[in-house]
Amino acid sequence: MTTDTPDAEEPLKGFDDLLRTTEELDTPDGFKAELIRGKIVVSPWSGLQYLWPMRELRLRLEPHAPKGHIAETSPFLFTFPSAERAFGPDLFVAAGSAFRGVQGRHADSEALSLVAELTSVSTRDVDWREKLEVYGRHVPVYLVLDMQAEEVTAFWDPSDHGYRAHMTVPFGKPLPIPAPFDFELETDIFLTSEEPEEDDAAE
Fold first, then answer.
1. How far apart are the C-alpha atoms of 113 and 65, rounded to whole Å?
2. Element (H, E) at 16
3. pLDDT tens track of the chain, all 203 residues?
4. Is 51 exposed, middle or buried (0-12, 13-18, 19+ CB in 10 A)?
5. Got the DSSP string for 120-174?
6. What is the pTM of this model?
C-alpha cells in the first residue's frame, strides 16, 4: 500500500526542503520514502517474491555495465532536481564513484546508466507514468518488469520529451538491452517456476 504523508498546516516550499524531510523520515522497516508529484510517498519495499528476479537481473546486468558502474538493489534515493523528484528504484546501475567517500542519503541521477522497476498493484501506475516521464529525460536505459502482465519493456534514447525508442517482450523471450550495455537479456529468469511434483512412489 502506498501512503501519502498528511498535509501540514504550513506546506513545505521547495524541492530541497521536501528532500531533506524525505531523508529524515523515520520509515518503518521494509518501507521506503520517495518524492513523487511533489509529495512524500511512503510505500513498501519489494516483496519476497521479487528478490529472485531482482537478484538474477543484477547478476546479468553488471558484467555488461559501463566501466566503473555497479548494479545494486539497495533502496537509495536518486534526485532529479529539474523535475523536483527523488526516486528509489528497485534496481539501478550507476557510477561507483557516486558512493565512495560521499556523505548523505541521496545520489545525483547523473550517475545512473540504467534503472529497473518491478511493478506491483500499488506501484504500477507510477512506474508506467510518473517514473517513465522523469527517467525518460535523464536515464540512458529504463527497464519496466511488468509482473502483472508478465512482460518486460526496455526504454532508451532519452530526450527532453521522453524516451525515443522502446521494445517489449513477454517473459521467456530474449530482450536486447541497448547501449551502453549492448547484450541480449534472457527473460525466462522472470517466469514463475512451479513446484516440482512429488513422486507417487515416495508416498
1. 8
2. helix 15-24
3. 344 444 444 444 577 777 676 666 666 566 666 667 767 777 665 667 788 899 999 999 999 999 999 999 987 889 998 888 889 899 999 999 998 877 667 788 999 999 999 998 888 999 999 999 999 999 999 999 999 999 999 999 999 999 999 999 999 999 999 999 999 999 999 987 544 344 444 43
4. exposed
5. -TTTHHHHHTHHHHHHTTT-SEEEEEETTTTEEEEEE---TTS-SEEEEEETTS-
6. 0.80
Sign of CA dihedral 191, 145, 73, 180: positive
Residue type, 69: H
Query: What count of Cα atoms within 13 Å lies in the side-chain half-sphere of residue 156?
Result: 14
